[in-house]
Amino acid sequence: MFENQQRDDVEKFIHADAETRRLYFRHKELDSKLEDAGRGCLALGDEALTQMKREKLQAKVQLERMWDRWRQSPH
Fold first, then answer.
1. Which of 18, 42, 51, 54 would disulfide-bridge 36, Cβ 3.0–4.6 Å?
2. Taking a C-beta distance cutoff of 8 angstroms, is the pair 20, 13 a contact?
């Protein structure tokens, strides 16, 4: 998600507050589970898979908004 950003900036952003940290690590957890499901290592029904994809996308969108606000603020 932050592949094109400076690593130091991303680290500062992630550790800026507890909510950012929680959301970032939840996104990573969902990404890992979805990768496992795609490889067949994690059995998920269609409904569960769809829900996880939605939650991951919502986390990404929220993190991107938080990132934009963080970048515009003095820190």
1. 42
2. yes
Of residues 1, 6, 24, 27, the one with CA closest to residue 71: 6
pLDDT of residue 3: 87
- pTM here is 0.89
Regions in the chain scoring below 50 on pLDDT:
none
The rounded radius of gyration (Å) of the Cα atoms in the chain is: 14
With a CB cutoff of 8 Å and minimum separation 6, the contacts of 14 are 20, 21, 24
HEC profile for 10-45?
A: HHHHHCCCHHHHHHHHHHHHHHHHHHHHHHCCCCCC
